[in-house]
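Quick one:
INPUT:
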């Protein structure tokens, strides 16, 4: 497979993006490229595939990129709404943290519906175009598999936030000039699309590829995440075991959890899918560190942090003493003037601190410094999926399917704990199903914090609304959260209106 993706994706894809992106319900034509002339060669095929990766980057601040660091990005929205990430900036940020959104307020996070939803059809049209190219199957199959995995990833994140969205049939896509108001797909229709695309992708993708490109393991993780959202734990267990069996041959668990995020371990084998950072190309540098880094925090050669994101104190307090995963969490620090900045409990037992971040929690710098950067941007990889998640997911699936605590599940959880410098779960933690599941849930929070998984974890374990209401009480705030309803975001009302009622609002809004 040709590997000049980094050179062309940011020019070709940007051009295509400007041509076909729409912010309304206007039908898009996905046939601007003359299929009589393009693609014909493998280079043409790769250009077509690379163009799609534009929609899966880190973007720039306040843009609609899927993995942007601001409040529109999947990771930030997931962690803020779960209460594992916060900031003193207030406004829309608090609306996420306290789950205060409503169907009518059109928060910025929902504006991403338009740009992301259209990618599903764009991927489908690319697949159909590539299937007509006069090249051998051995050449075409990996590229088509990439696009099917990309389609599955965007469809996963749309389902994660909104539930099943409308899926345009090939017949509808063949006639972009005819406007059709499409209803949401049923769960069964969505299942069929996800399984068809991702099973095909799994079959034809390589186990290893250039950083940022789809692989067999990535496609498996996308389907695994979808199964977990859908509550298909039997199917999820089978898939988790398949990924787990790739240990040593493809993936591994690093000895030190901090190394996974260290700039010196960019190409480590614990990571299943990551975005490669690049300080010299717009939409590719990693800004999550900048969001978390205090402006006066000495962090290698990096400077000018945005003094924003933090780990709330109630989350920090759940860690056990000696947990190595706390090494990137700072309840205090010495700033670049040699002054101590710290948080503390006041005489009323309320946490406060010397700056806007420490007043609410602790500084959380999960990603190590980029020693090639002299500002707040970083070329450190942004990690989306990794092997430790597979281990904990397998333990969860085994327990849910057996409806009992098993030695296998205990051993899997203890692998993650031991790697973090902690002892095995004690007798109480494994004494019954409910207590063990609580321990497993907390292990996921401690292992995977600020990686985008906390929201779905809380939903799956029945804690999403309960935790939001508790936060509101603690901070004397209001919350709109309703059990079940807030597991999904509302569909933007403008979309519902323009669809002439074909689109239904999510239940409860």
């Amino acid at each position: 497979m040709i590997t000049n993706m980094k050179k062309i994706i940011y020019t070709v894809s940007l051009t295509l993006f400007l041509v076909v992106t729409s912010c309304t319900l206007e039908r898009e034509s996905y046939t601007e490229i003359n299929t009589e002339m393009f693609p014909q060669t493998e280079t043409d095929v790769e250009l077509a595939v690379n163009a799609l990766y534009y929609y899966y980057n880190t973007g720039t601040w306040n843009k609609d990129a899927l993995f942007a660091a601001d409040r529109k990005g999947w990771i930030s929205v997931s962690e803020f709404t779960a209460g594992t990430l916060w900031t003193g900036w207030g406004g829309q940020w608090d609306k996420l943290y306290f789950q205060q959104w409503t169907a009518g307020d059109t928060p910025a996070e929902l504006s991403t519906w338009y740009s992301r939803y259209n990618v599903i059809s764009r991927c489908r049209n690319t697949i159909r175009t590539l299937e007509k190219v006069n090249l051998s199957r051995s050449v075409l199959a990996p590229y088509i598999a990439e696009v099917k995995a990309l389609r599955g990833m965007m469809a996963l994140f749309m389902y994660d936030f909104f539930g099943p969205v409308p899926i345009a049939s090939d017949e509808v896509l063949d006639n972009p000039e005819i406007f059709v108001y499409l209803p949401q797909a049923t769960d069964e229709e969505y299942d069929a699309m996800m399984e068809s695309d991702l099973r095909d992708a799994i079959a034809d993708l390589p186990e290893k590829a250039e950083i940022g490109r789809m692989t067999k393991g990535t496609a498996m993780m996308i389907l695994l995440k979808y199964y977990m959202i859908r509550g298909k734990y039997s199917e999820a267990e089978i898939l988790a075991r398949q990924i787990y069996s790739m240990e040593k041959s493809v993936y591994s668990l690093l000895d030190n959890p901090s190394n996974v995020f260290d700039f010196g371990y960019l190409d480590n084998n614990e990571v299943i899918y990551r975005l490669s950072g690049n300080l010299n190309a717009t939409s590719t540098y990693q800004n999550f560190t900048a969001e978390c880094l205090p402006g006066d925090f000495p962090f290698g050669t990096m400077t000018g942090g945005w003094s924003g994101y933090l780990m709330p104190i109630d989350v920090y307090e759940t860690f056990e003493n000696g947990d190595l995963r706390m090494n990137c969490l700072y309840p205090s620090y010495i700033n670049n003037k040699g002054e101590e900045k710290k948080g503390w409990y006041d005489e009323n037992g309320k946490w406060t601190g010397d700056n806007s971040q420490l007043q609410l929690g602790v500084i959380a710098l999960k990603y190590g410094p980029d020693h090639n950067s002299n500002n707040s941007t970083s070329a450190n990889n942004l990690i989306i999926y990794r092997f430790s998640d597979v281990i904990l997911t397998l333990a969860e699936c085994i327990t849910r399917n057996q409806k009992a605590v098993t030695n296998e599940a205990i051993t899997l959880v203890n692998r993650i704990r031991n790697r973090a410098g902690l002892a095995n779960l004690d007798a109480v933690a494994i004494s019954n199903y409910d207590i063990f599941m609580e321990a497993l849930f907390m292990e996921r929070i401690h292992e995977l914090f600020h990686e985008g998984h906390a929201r779905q974890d809380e939903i799956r374990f029945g804690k999403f609304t309960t935790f939001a209401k508790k936060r509101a009480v603690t901070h004397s705030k209001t919350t709109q959260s309703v059990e079940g309803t807030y597991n999904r975001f509302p569909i933007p009302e403008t979309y519902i209106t323009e669809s002439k009622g074909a689109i239904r609002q999510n239940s409860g809004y």
